[in-house]
UniProtKB/TrEMBL annotation, chain A:
Pfam families to which the protein is assigned, alphabetical: Alg6_Alg8 (PF03155)
Protein name per Swiss-Prot or TrEMBL: Alpha-1,3-glucosyltransferase
Gene Ontology molecular function: any one: dolichyl pyrophosphate Man9GlcNAc2 alpha-1,3-glucosyltransferase activity
Source organism (scientific name): Lentinula raphanica
Protein origin, superkingdom: Eukaryota
Biased composition (Polar residues): 10-20, 664-673
From TrEMBL, chain B:
Catalytic activity: an alpha-D-Glc-(1->3)-alpha-D-Man-(1->2)-alpha-D-Man-(1->2)-alpha-D-Man-(1->3)-[alpha-D-Man-(1->2)-alpha-D-Man-(1->3)-[alpha-D-Man-(1->2)-alpha-D-Man-(1->6)]-alpha-D-Man-(1->6)]-beta-D-Man-(1->4)-beta-D-GlcNAc-(1->4)-alpha-D-GlcNAc-diphospho-di-trans,poly-cis-dolichol + a di-trans,poly-cis-dolichyl beta-D-glucosyl phosphate = an alpha-D-Glc-(1->3)-alpha-D-Glc-(1->3)-alpha-D-Man-(1->2)-alpha-D-Man-(1->2)-alpha-D-Man-(1->3)-[alpha-D-Man-(1->2)-alpha-D-Man-(1->3)-[alpha-D-Man-(1->2)-alpha-D-Man-(1->6)]-alpha-D-Man-(1->6)]-beta-D-Man-(1->4)-beta-D-GlcNAc-(1->4)-alpha-D-GlcNAc-diphospho-di-trans,poly-cis-dolichol + a di-trans,poly-cis-dolichyl phosphate + H(+)
Family indicated by similarity: Belongs to the ALG6/ALG8 glucosyltransferase family.
A GO molecular-function descriptor: dolichyl pyrophosphate Glc1Man9GlcNAc2 alpha-1,3-glucosyltransferase activity
Name by which UniProt lists this protein: Alpha-1,3-glucosyltransferase
InterPro entries found in the cross-reference section: Glyco_trans_ALG6/ALG8
Source organism of this protein record: Lentinula raphanica
Superkingdom of this protein's organism: Eukaryota
GO biological process terms on file: protein N-linked glycosylation
Pfam families reported in the protein's UniProt record: Alg6_Alg8
Membrane topology: Multi-pass membrane protein
Coiled coil segments of this chain: none
A single Gene Ontology CC term: endoplasmic reticulum membrane
Length: 740, 530
């Protein structure tokens, strides 16, 4: 099934059955000669089935609305873009534009959001090069403005809050010997984060000691709240954010969306940097989540550029900064294992051993001071471990928008089931929660594996396989495009089902969602889910933020965020009927509930019997959204998995003649008809990728096969696929199939 | 800062980019609600209390708080208006004896009023775009004015209502541009009755309206126009002052408005010509002391350092400056400008003359406050894109002027915020505008001048580093040497003041030179508006 040596290996029989082969070949221009067709966003195309002019497969409704449109095809010829279209592509373009004019999803500039408008304007005004710096500085300004406000535990002696915890850690790490870090006065904010946090705290403490020793004086500084110490603390967050999160996001936007326009990259950068949930928690509430998230994004960047070992090390550092990164571990681990499977027994096991060594070495490095040669007793290692994983706490503490807390309204879990049992149930549910993405990733890797194929392909492609294998060890795999969905899936299942979840933890599932969202085109499914997810994530933290005195920034930043991304909940509600997709209807309902709750809260004091009325209502509104996001991530995993591997057992290996037909059909394809599939050379920059594009490598591969770049339209690694798909693949077919 | 308009939005009430600016600016202003507030916050709260609790006859007599009412009557009426909702929101806001009240309600209320009244400025700036010679450029300038760091620092952190009042000024200027000179004059008269500091600009208005509105181009008097303008202005002043005149309080009112008991320099020297001269005096004193030369030293001047007291500055070496001297110099410089304006009463000429009048008053006035620098920067911004010479003047004056406002906020967090904001703001204006107005230097002297100016501008980076690191270094020194107040704690302020003064004086010289020499030969965009 997998090893069709050439041409149409991914040919989906469903669509070929459905359409006469003539029209099918026409619709998919895998031309190798004419440089004039374009990858086009089908979501904007409304084909009339009655039209005699267009002999193309008529995308049915699920296809039009599947999120495939956001990753399979180019971004729409975005209203934001004023870039001239190359003369060769105009012919293919013209029918599109006339068709798109009817599309109700076509956005005018005024609808496209402040971020797009702003970036468009700056590019036009010659600020292209300095834009990233300006965006960064503007975000720093906003962070500082937010920092002027209150923080977790301000003016609440004797324990204060998270702010005091972080400051206290600077105090103890700087003044105490390393082996006392995890055992010193545990009742007053004992250190319970992994060693990297401790080292960072030590560094901050050392700097504070130079500037003003009273900020971190042992004991006497507890609860210090001077303006200068507050500024120092705020600046530490901003500086670590600038050192880790910002570069990670910048690199991400430029590698992962490397095949997209510079404007899209800048927009992605802007969106990721302004994400309000992280903004409010890190720079308002006070935590260092951006470091942990930044390290994970860095790991993703390394995976995308093929530096798996660095990626693994980076992820371990993320774990070493905050154990919360474990939520990502199933996805990251599966990805790396799947890559080993993908590469085969020789290369794969070599990679496996290397990864293992790197991971273990990084862990050892992190915990070095607690390991015997450097510590006095081997038992000391238990100090940090027992602090980092506290199993003694309850199922959930405050009101968290997860499965347990939401269902607790009806089923009082704590009275029904014993604590130990609950832990086990939670573990099993979590496992089941992220299992789909693990399975899909493993299955996709198995189906796409390069090693099995190399034995069966001809000698020519065998040679090529050797080359691509060479490349492969330093390159990413097609399964990379599954990684963001798998990350959402695994972290969301942890959030929903695991033990001891805090409401701030929603930042973890939100991060990969935002990574996808940053490059999504307005109106697409990813965009809708991303906008909804980000807004509801912030909403779910409302009780916490309100307690911190961040009510005003909460509203201000939500308004700014929706303005920046060009999302208008009010308009969404007002246009709910007739809705254009289920997400739309669902979003409208959720936003209505949120606005209603916010209006109700100041007007009604909850009855004495239910003091937590509003937090519970908050949970009941937020949880369904998170459950839906979790289900959606599973759906996407399966879709993308199919798109990558294809239900290829249905493919008949009769590609050769059809390939010829396809080539001859190239000229037809360039006629006045929307063509769904990219011609590689002409418009490589327009090809959208779910995964990162690698400029040079892509270009090289696209020169020797059209399929190379056609596959690049879906995923990051053309070279791995090019062998299997030489001659032409019909990506559209996959999506067709996968969206069924 | 503002994208170009698109056709679809023309029918909308506000185009999307204007909404963007409004939302963005409101968001960070709201985030800054809890920021540092100067005593001006309490001053304005006290005025709310005075106007709300006392009968009008007591307004200018009340001394319950040390922050007595010292703005003209329109501002008092304005406060009276604001006090009405305030009394509903929280009656304690308008409590006369509730001094230094700073609960969340009063912060929320007063900060919000600043944001809302600033919409006057926003509306005027939007109107500027319509009918501009080059709307996209005017958009950038309008956005830059709405987001001016001066307003952020003075209004939204320090606390004042300058945005509102500059809104009126800009409406008045807009009316002059659109040829409605009667409205322009009336609006300016209204503005004068809100805050009398705008008298700095009055000479330019007087000459411009007299020449271009009350006289025909041939020099014949247009009696109808003249009477209309005179009556309207008198009516405005009657509306403002009549209640107090009837109660016989004019003298008391004027004694509040013009306290001539203050010194030459403010506590922190405003970066004007006197700051330079005071600095020269200090240097000469040091020199005289160290070399023992027989300069005549005024002993009173030795004591009078800028110790942060609002008192008279007495020079140690140089001859002392009297209010009359400052007045004479200011009038002399203004009259040079006004003579030119008399012979070229065009809009552009008026705008430049207006700026120069404010500029001269700022540089040579008696007891000028650093906040008055907005009187220069705001009208000058309207000229920024005129051509390269204006743009460069704008850049120098703006950088120096905004930097000179930094010491106004001395709390650590706000000091960082203002610097970062100003950098972002400046870059977003400089980058698009500089490309638009760039001119190739004509001769070697221009290249050298350009080099000097760039060096001067670069010096601000070093200055900022020095100012920021000074307290830390000083604290290290004091911890090693023991506490010693060697009079150096004001050094950063003095250095800032002097360095900014150099730029502002140079900017003035540039602008007056451009105005007097080149204007006839070198036409910019605004020249098309007569």
């Amino acid at each position: 099934m997998v090893d069709v040596p050439d041409s149409i290996s991914h040919f989906p029989s469903k669509s070929s059955r459905k359409f006469p082969s003539q029209s099918f070949t026409r619709s998919s221009s895998t031309s190798t000669s004419a440089g004039n067709s374009l990858v086009i966003n089908t979501s904007n195309i409304h084909l009339q089935s009655s039209s005699s002019q267009i002999i193309a497969p008529i995308p049915r409704r699920p296809f039009l609305e599947s999120d495939a449109s956001s990753w399979l095809h180019t971004p729409p010829l975005s209203p934001v873009s004023s870039r001239g279209i190359s003369p060769t592509s105009t012919r293919a373009l013209s029918p599109y534009t006339s068709l798109a004019g009817n599309g109700h999803e076509r956005l005018s500039i005024s609808d496209s959001g402040m971020g797009r408008r702003w970036i468009r304007w700056s590019h036009k005004r010659g600020m292209r090069t300095s834009l990233v710096v300006l965006i960064f500085l503007a975000s720093v300004f906003l962070k500082l403005c937010l920092g002027v406000g209150s923080y977790s535990g301000q003016n609440t002696p004797p324990m204060y809050g998270d702010y005091e915890a972080q400051r206290h850690w600077m105090e103890i790490t700087f003044h105490l010997p390393i082996h006392e870090w995890y055992s010193y006065d545990l009742h007053y904010w004992g250190l319970d984060y992994p060693p990297l946090t401790a080292y960072v705290s030590w560094l901050c403490g050392a700097v504070a000691n130079i500037i003003n020793p009273t900020w971190i004086a042992l004991h006497s500084s507890r609860g210090i709240e001077t303006v200068s110490s507050k500024l120092f603390m705020r600046l530490t967050v901003i500086i670590f954010d600038a050192l880790i999160y910002v570069p990670a996001v910048l690199v991400f936007s430029q590698t992962w969306y490397g095949a997209r326009s510079r404007r899209t990259q800048d927009l992605a950068f802007l969106m990721l940097i302004l994400q309000p949930a992280l903004f409010l928690i890190d720079f308002g509430h006070f935590q260092y989540n951006s470091v942990m998230l930044g390290l994970t994004i860095m790991a993703i960047n390394f995976f995308a550029t093929g530096h798996d070992l660095l990626g693994a090390a980076s992820f371990v550092l993320s774990l070493g900064f905050k154990q919360m990164a474990l939520y990502y571990a199933p996805a990251v681990g599966t990805y790396l294992l799947a890559k080993c499977v993908f590469l085969g027994p020789t290369d794969g096991s070599r990679l496996f051993v290397r990864l293992g060594c790197t991971t273990v070495a990084t862990f050892i490095l992190l915990f070095l001071p607690w390991i015997p040669p450097f510590s006095t007793s081997p038992a000391l290692i238990l100090d940090p471990i027992s602090r980092i994983f506290p199993f003694a706490r309850g199922l959930f503490e405050d009101k968290v928008a997860n499965f347990w807390c939401a269902s607790n309204v009806v089923i009082k879990w704590k009275t029904w089931i014993a604590q130990e049992m609950l832990v086990k149930v939670a573990a099993v549910l979590t496992l089941l929660g992220f299992l789909p993405s693990v399975i899909v990733m493993g299955k996709t890797a198995w189906e796409l594996k390069v090693w099995n194929g190399s034995a069966e392909t001809g000698s020519n492609s065998n040679e090529h396989t050797q080359n691509s294998n060479q490349e492969e060890s330093s390159s990413h795999t097609p399964i990379l495009s599954l990684l963001p969905y798998a990350l959402i899936n695994s972290s969301m299942s942890f959030f929903l089902f695991s033990f001891q979840v805090h409401e701030k933890t929603i930042l973890l599932p939100l991060m990969p969602l935002m990574l996808l969202f940053a490059g999504a085109t307005p109106g697409s499914e990813v965009y809708s889910w991303g906008a909804l997810g980000s807004n509801v994530a912030v909403f779910s933290m409302w009780p916490l933020l309100q307690k911190d005195g961040l009510a005003l920034p909460y509203f201000a930043l939500l308004v700014l965020w929706n303005r920046v991304i060009g999302h208008n909940p009010i308009r969404l509600i007002s246009t709910a009927f007739p809705f254009n997709s289920l997400v739309h209807l669902f979003s409208a309902a959720v936003y209505t509930a949120i606005i209603f709750l916010h209006l109700l809260e100041p007007l009604i004091t909850p009855p004495a019997r239910y003091p937590d009325l509003f937090p519970v209502l908050n949970v009941l509104v937020s949880t369904p959204v998170f459950v839906c996001l979790w289900l959606w991530s599973i759906k996407c995993c399966i879709q993308v998995g199919w798109a990558r591997s294809g239900p290829s057992d249905l493919v008949k290996p009769d590609g050769e003649p059809r390939h010829a037909k396809l080539s001859t059909a190239a000229s037809d394809a360039s006629q006045r008809r929307p063509s769904f599939i990219a011609k590689p050379q002409g418009d490589r920059t327009r090809a959208i990728s779910l995964g990162p594009a690698q400029g040079k490598r892509l270009r090289r591969s696209s020169t020797h096969s059209a399929a190379g770049s056609a596959s690049s339209a879906i995923g990051p690694s053309p070279s791995s696929l090019s062998r299997r798909t030489t001659g032409g693949i019909l990506v559209e077919g996959h999506v067709e199939a996968s969206s069924q | 800062m503002k994208p170009e308009s698109d056709a679809s939005s023309s029918k909308a009430w506000l185009d999307p980019s204007a909404w963007d600016i409004l939302i963005l600016s409101t968001v960070f202003k709201v985030l800054l609600f809890p920021a540092y507030r100067s005593t001006d916050f309490e001053v304005h709260r006290n005025w709310l209390a005075i106007t709300h609790s006392l009968p009008i006859s007591q307004w200018y007599y009340d001394t319950t708080s040390e922050w007595t009412l010292d703005y003209p009557p329109f501002f008092a009426y304005f406060e009276k208006l604001l006090s009405i909702p305030a009394s509903f929101i929280d009656p304690r806001i308008v409590g006369l004896n509730n001094l230094n009240y700073d609960s969340w309600s009063v912060i929320l209320y007063q900060r919000t009023t600043v944001i809302i009244t600033e919409l006057v400025l926003g509306a005027a700036l939007l109107r500027f775009i319509r009918g501009a010679v080059d709307p996209p450029t005017q958009r950038i300038i309008s956005a830059s004015l709405f987001l001016h760091p001066g307003f952020l620092i003075i209004d939204h952190i320090h606390f004042q209502y300058n945005g509102f009042m500059f809104g009126i000024l800009l409406w008045s200027i807009l009316m002059a541009r659109d040829g409605n000179k009667l409205a322009s004059g009336i609006l300016f008269a209204v503005l004068l009755n809100f805050k009398h500091i705008y008298m700095y600009l009055a000479p330019a208005y007087f000459v411009y309206l007299l020449r271009s509105f009350c006289l025909s181009p041939s020099g014949r008097i247009e009696i109808k126009n003249f009477l209309a303008l005179a009556n309207a202005v008198i009516a405005v002043f009657i509306a403002s002052l009549a209640p107090f005149a009837l109660m016989g309080q004019i003298q008391q009112l004027f004694s509040r408005l013009f306290p001539f008991t203050r010194g030459l320099n403010h506590a922190y020297w405003a970066p004007n010509a006197w700051a330079l001269i005071t600095a020269v005096d200090r240097v000469l004193l040091k020199y005289a002391k160290s070399s023992g030369s027989n300069l005549h030293i005024n002993t009173a001047g030795v004591v009078s350092t800028s110790r942060g007291l609002v008192g008279d500055t007495v020079f140690a070496v140089l001859p002392n400056v009297k209010p009359l001297h400052t007045f004479t110099i200011t009038i002399a410089l203004q009259s040079i400008v006004l003579i030119k304006l008399w012979f070229h009463p065009t809009y552009k000429s008026f705008l430049t003359a207006l700026t120069l009048c404010g500029y001269a008053s700022y540089l040579f006035g008696w007891h000028v406050h650093e906040k008055a620098v907005l009187l220069i920067l705001i009208p000058l911004s309207l000229l920024a894109a005129e051509r390269h010479a204006y743009f460069r003047t704008f850049v120098i004056a703006t950088v120096a002027g905004v930097f000179s406002l930094f010491p106004l906020l001395f709390t650590p967090a706000e000091s960082v915020i203002e610097v970062i904001y100003s950098i972002v703001w400046f870059a977003s204006i400089y980058l698009p505008l500089s490309k638009r107005v760039y001119e190739f230097p004509k001769s070697l002297s221009y290249v050298i001048l350009d080099l000097f100016e760039k060096t001067y501008l670069g010096g601000f980076v070093l200055l900022q580093i020095f100012v920021a690191s000074f307290p830390v270094i000083a604290s290290w020194k004091s911890s090693t040497d023991g506490p010693s107040s060697n009079g150096l704690e004001f050094l950063p302020l003095m250095v800032t003041s002097v360095y900014c003064a150099i730029g502002l004086v140079w900017g003035f010289m540039r602008l007056i030179f451009i105005y007097l020499h080149e204007d006839t030969t070198y036409q910019g965009q605004l020249s098309t508006i007569q």
